[in-house]
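Input set for joint prediction.
Command: fold jointly, output tokens.
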Amino acid sequence: MSYAYLFKYIIIGDTGVGKSCLLLQFTDKRFQPVHDLTIGVEFGARMITIDGKQIKLQIWDTAGQESFRSITRSYYRGAAGALLVYDITRRDTFNHLTTWLEDARQHSNSNMVIMLIGNKSDLESRREVKKEEGEAFAREHGLIFMETSAKTAANVEEAFINTAKEIYEKIQEGVFDINNEANGIKIGPQHSPSNPALGGGGGAGGSQAGGGCC
Amino acid sequence: MISRVRNVVNSVMGGLAALPQPPERPQPDDLELKYPYCRPEFLQLSQDEIQVSADHVSRPIMVPREPNRLPWSAGYAEVINAGKSPRNEDQAATTQLCISRPARTSNRNTNKANNKGNNGNSGEDNLQQEAMTEETEEMDELHFTYFGVFDGHAGTGAAIMASRTLHYHIRDKMADVSELLLPVTYEDQNHPGSGSNHGSGSGKPSSRVITKEHLIIGALERSFCEMDSQIERERLTFRITGGCTALVAVFVLGKLFLVNAGDSRAVLCRNGEAIPMSRDFTPESERQRLQYLAHLHPHLLSNEFTALEFPRRLHKTDLGKQTLYRDHTMTGWAPKTVTEDDLKFPLIFGEGKRCRVLATIGVTRGFGDHDLRVYDSHCQIKPFLTAAPEIQTYDMLEQRFGEDDFLIMASDGLWDVVANQDACNVVLDALTQFHPQDPNRYTSAAQELVMHARGTLQGKGWRRPAEDKPASGDDITAFIIPLYHYGNQHLSSPTVLSESEESSTREMETETEAEADPGPDSLDP
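tokens >
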């Protein structure tokens, strides 16, 4: 379970666009048509490989409801990547993207990689937002873009992995200060200079320094 | 050379001073943990999630995934500190438990005459017993609902242990008096005043009448004492680090019992108005108790501290001059001439949150801390701490409760920055956004309240933007417990504590053990 890097992601967007379903599809490879409302924040994690390196993605899935907005906002900081999700069958969720993006830009670190996701691509017959519109919005705001389906799993892997690739490249270019935890990147335990043993107390025990690693 | 001699002398002296300690005690570090670090069970966090929850940079507010796992879909939220300790040292627990009356031969044949006759006509007795059991079956159980908040310090061990076991101690201590608590019969309900007619109490006119409420209070007091004793015993075989405060709410027999040993706080909100349900125990609020203890047992100060309080720390230059002081008998101040003894460090020193006992600890009640000593000294802290709680009761049947009436129980991380009424207002505001039947209603409110105290990270510090004031960097834990479930469900239930039946508790010995002064009890090492 050792990894070279840990990237912290945050998933944001209007309520009901499928944020929790995207996470579940990515971490558990399953789809749950009826999902409880996310109240605060939920976490998921999965290991991926980029450039021969093990990378752990720690994903924070947030509540989309307006009433939880101030809490959600407080989680932007400390994320290396964000998935900004809208529902291609609901025009209003697309219209709200500007607000979400302003929010994210204002409260996150400036290097955060943002992936725009048009979800529910399986519901072609009910589509309200053309793929070209998503592409245009992404181009205009300098985002990566994909349409996904949490139901059929189409492009879900790619969405998470392509975001990680972008972050990884930024690390290679030296854009990210990987020693600053607030950037949402941690170096894996075996790579850090001092690592006081992982043993003891059921996984959570042992390590003293800096909250440990997920 | 001299220093080496001094070292030898010191170690010999140290050895002598430590003599009362049990010999060859294993070092705590060698022992196995009693419980590994964890978060409350109802949060259902995986090991991975437990680690993410300890993110000091983002300080995620954790809420139960399935709010209806908590009794009455009560709300809960917690957040870790801003970096003062690697782990969240708060803990919480909630459960619903039941005690039942042990098999017995009904009220009528508990007297000695019948017991003696058991050999002769046991068959008849059994018949009678069965009849009685059937008659009172529904009421031979006593259900209670429990919530607990534990704020740990100097480690997570004591708080985790208390959150895992205190409710069982409460159940056991209540079970010890189940014969007196149960049954609550239909007769008591339908014919007020008839309760005292049966039972052997009438044959002992001299015995004092003890109400069921006081039996519950006694059980709660005993359970706190037992919890601390258990930690004291088991720390010899397990590693149980630190200590913790305890704030417990028990809903039973139509009443709410608020049990407090520490500086967590319970506030009841009814019709929008905040009613404090506990008092904070701090070195400042407990000054006179602590000073009295030092007055009675001066050796506890190890000749290093003075029990008196002065308006400021005194120095050599103050010798022979006048100063103001107060001791355990005083709330006001009086003059005295400064002597050599007055130059020692004060037993209680510091203001507000910085106030410490023996320059070491900022809380005065709770569990654990059995090995805590003054830094670089043999001076023990524990004798000044006590597990004895203060209990407040609230009648849940006198009035109807609405969906916006609730009880807040929270650790000092919340109350350090939010006033009682403000906390109620934040919750009330959050409640308006959810339908009364929405299971997420109280959880969302709890989250909102914790968010209000945690604030947001601005620059380098956590601040509350709404009021532009510093936020709490401490661990924060909060329950929001709706009151209408319990109040209204018990309006028609037989298992309630009403005036009519209180007199039915019989022949309870008056020397309720828990009344004993906790001071001397905890003085013996």
